[in-house]
Amino acid sequence: MSDAAFSASGSPITIEGVQKARGALTRNRIKLALLFASLLFVVILGRLALLAMETVEDDFVGQERPALTASRPTLLDRNGQQLAIDIQSPSLFAEPRNIVDLDEAVEKISRVLPDLDRKFLRERLDGDEGFVWLQRELTPAQQDSIMRLGLPGIDFVTETRRFYPGGPVASHILGAVNVDNVGIAGIEAYLDREEVALLQDLGLARDRTLEPKNLSIDLRVQHAMHRELKDALERYQAIASAGVMIDVRTGEIIAMASLPDFDPNDPASALEEGRYNRITAGTFELGSTFKTVTISGALDSSAVSITDRFDATSAVRFGRFSIGDFHGKNRVLSVPEVYKYSSNIGTIKIMQAWGKDNYRAYLHKLHLDGTPTIELPEKKTANVPKTFSEVGAATASFGHGLSVTPLQLVAAYAAIANGGTYIPPTLFKRDPIDAQILGEQVISKRASDDMRYLLRLNALEGSGRRAAPDGYMVGGKTGTAEKVVDGRYSSAKSLAVFASVFPMDSPRYAMVILVDEPQPENERSGRTAAWNAGDVTGRIIERVAPMLGVLPDFDENRDVALVPAALQ
Amino acid sequence: MNIFSRDRKTLIAEWWWTVDRELLGALFALMGIGILMSFAASPAVAERLKLGEWHFIIRHMLLLIPTIGVMLGVSLMTPRQARFLALGVLGVSMVLLAATLVVGTEIKGSQRWLSFAGQSLQPSEFVKPAFAVIAGWLMAERMRRTDVPGHAITLGLLGMIVGMLILQPDVGQTVLILLTWAALLFIAGISWWVIAVLGGLGIAGITSAYLLFPHVSRRIDTFLGGDSGDNYQVEKALQSLVEGGWFGRGPGEAVTKRFLPDAHADFVFSAAAGEFGILFCMALVGLIGFVVWRGLSRAQLLNDLFARLAASALVIQFGLQSAINLMVNINLIPPKGMTLPFVSYGGTSMIAVAFGMGILLALTRRKPQEAIASGLPLEREALRHEAA
């Protein structure tokens, strides 16, 4: 365009019109340039705005920290003793991508932490990662020294570690947590499922101390039971021993232990074979201890009364099977005698008088089938046939052909002894009033009174003598269940059980003790439950009853008072 | 204040009443921001280079004294004097540019620097503004009188400069010089056909630079290839920008800038972003934009063709250099060795920009005779011209 203006003039003389045209042209072009520049700067501003809106991925604070510092509630026993606590310790980490001088960092850190291998340290710090651990759990002094080094890209995070001051004492109750402080077993896992996980999700559990939780456990009793069970393992060369004590009025578990056990501070030790919680996660044929159940149900019904007598002269036959008595009396026995002599024949007769379907329904009422009610995730469903055949009902009446968890048995004993109210067991502290609301009447007060008499009678005159230290009014029943080895009941391998309640005149606690495959303690002792499980029960009660406020009282009138009116 | 008095016609008073104070103010603001940003960006670099924490900050501030001196001194000149000065500077700096090829110091794979007496000098920085002024003058002369071989001489100069820059090699400066020349041609009223042809040549030039120079192709490859390869600087620059967010982390709080090798120089923008935030950065971009807008608006009003072309060329060069630096910082284009005028640390760059801006200020001073000729204020005068 401009060239056209020049050539039109054809001479070097400048003409005013040409100058003006030129002026307009260049001015327009400058405007265009300005427009272009504006566009360029708008693009830059736009890009900046986009960058500003980008969120910073802070790979540390957002992701890993909550899991590391997640705190868990302190677990206390019923009296406020610590069972599980959080302890905080600083851990050292590095952000290699932020390390300016690798040599300096390696040099200075290894001066403070001489145990750390230099080569390892150099490899760790070199690179472009955002996060690497250097050393977990430092002492405060070490933390201070490293802080003073003033190295960029080196920092601490306070890690929370779970600590169990009692070690293995309550291991199966408490369970354990994994490296990330997540509960993997026991109450710890239960808490996570119930609430801690929820709180952590909401970000509430991070830096806040959670409300401590009171368990129903009495650490003193727990310790005594744990010690006695441990002793039993050696004394009877048993493969396992387990016990559980429950408050019959509230369903609170006072103590529960199963050996062999593990140290929750070293959760890997729980993985070894046979270390499961036999009280909730093991089902057993609990043998003669079931006679208490059978007789209590029969006495509750109108079919059988405490004064009835049953013929136990000869074995009961079912086709080719024949069931006899271990301590056979071969005569007509009264109900207390059936119980005292642990007569299989008598018990079968009592059950038959009552009716096998009634018996099966009663087992359900007492929660002796199904899965035990307990907060622990480790539990096993009882193996009880849905309906009983004649022979099935007969064996079940004395505790064979069905297997239940010891926890279910102890809850049933509690119900039978406390006046007939079944209260679901719990590991958390429970108010007696709440317990009453939860309770279901399963047998009559009268039947419960009769049973208290029978239990005490057995302890005084029957198989429970060894388990009943004087003055504590202990009542109980033995059970020696032969184990099935290669499809046959073996007399060498048995499970010894002792189920007890004390004090019998005003029941407070029910307890079940198991000794798995016991050997006789010496030549003069037997291998039946009274010799081991019974002894253990006696020793435990002697140790813990005074702690629990059950003081010895040697007044013989208390025993007399238990005798039902019909027998006086 | 009586040196600014209008009673008597002193040099200073005349300058004060005719210089474009908005432009001057914006340039001073830019220098102020430069100091502020050096506080954020340079201590980390200084520490890394085992210099004192304040090394670059003190030098930056000391450098501003000659910088302001040069800018104001040059702005006192008349357009004619400025033109002669530019001619002189162009001549000397081209000789020095040639010298870099023989006795230059090689830094980071390019021979761009001359060292003497402990100081280093990058002649190409001075070539840029001087070329813009002289090319503007030559084109204005060519437009006034067809017998002046303005385009031919410009092309000759351009060829020599570009040749030497490519030999260094310095693709960033080459591109800037070529773009300055192209902008001048555009403003001088070149036809759109020629623009299309030159645009094609430009693309061909970039392609050949990519194919011929390994360091250019590597940079472009890593730029296109996302975060693979060694665009460590760019990655850290972006991290630093994002780190600050809208409002920044506050003085001394940003972390990423510590890992930006050129935090005090080419990447001062993103380094400072971590501490001062993107809003601050946007304000800085706005300030640079204001300089460009004000400069071009003023250039547009100038009656003298030489002044109009040269001023536009200087402003465009300033704007392009800033834009290239900014776009590198925000990863819109691959890295080039380009400073942010008045803000980045670097003696040669700062003095050279001061020289260019001094000429811009000199050219854009209000000329009493222009206003008096019509009896109207300058702005009206321009409108009258356009209406004509």
Distinctive features:
heterodimer, A: 568 residues, alpha+beta, Penicillin-binding protein 2a (Domain 2), Beta-lactamase, 2 domains, 5-stranded mixed beta sheet, 5-stranded antiparallel beta sheet, 18 strands, 18% strand, elongated, B: 388 residues, mainly alpha, 3-stranded antiparallel beta sheet, 15 helices, 71% helix, globular
Instruction: Please identify the structural class of chain A as seen in this structure.
Output: alpha+beta
In CATH terms, the superfamily of the largest domain in chain A is DD-peptidase/beta-lactamase superfamily
User: How does the major sheet of chain B shape up?
Assistant: 3 strands, antiparallel
Strand tally of chain B is: 3
Number of helices of chain B: 15
Please describe what this structure looks like.
The complex is a heterodimer of chains A (568) and B (388). Chain A contains 19 helices and 18 strands. By secondary structure, chain A is an alpha+beta fold. Chain A has two domains: 65-214, Penicillin-binding protein 2a (Domain 2); 220-567, 3-Layer(aba) Sandwich (Beta-lactamase), CATH 3.40.710. In chain A, strands 1, 2, 3, 4 and 7 form a five-stranded mixed sheet that branches. In chain A, strands 9-8-18-17-16 form a five-stranded antiparallel sheet, sandwiched between helices. Chain A has a two-stranded antiparallel ribbon with strand order 5-6. In chain A, strand 5 and strand 6 (183-185) form a beta hairpin. In chain A, helix 10 runs parallel beside helix 12, helix 10 packs across helix 15 and helix 12 packs across helix 14 (390-397). By secondary structure, chain B is mostly helical. Chain B has one domain. Chain B has helices at residues 11-18, 21-48, 55-75, 79-103, 123-144, 150-167, 171-187, 192-212, 214-224, 232-244, 268-301, 305-329, 347-363, 368-374, 378-387, and strands at residues 105-107, 110-116, 119-121. In chain B, strands 1-2-3 form a three-stranded antiparallel sheet, with helices on one face. Chain B is globular, with a radius of gyration of 21 Å. Chain B starts with 10 loop residues before the first helix and ends with a helix. The model of chain B is unreliable at 371-375 (pLDDT under 50). The A-B interface holds A 1-3, 6, 12, 14, 20, 22-27, 29-34, 37-38, 40-41, 43-45, 47-49, 51-52, 54, 56, 97-98, 100, 152 and B 48, 143-147, 183, 186-189, 191, 238, 241-243, 245-246, 255, 258-259, 277-279, 281-282, 285-286, 288-289, 292-293, 296-297, 299-300, 303, 305, 308-309, 312, 316, 319, 323, 326-327, 330, 332, 382, 385-386, 388.
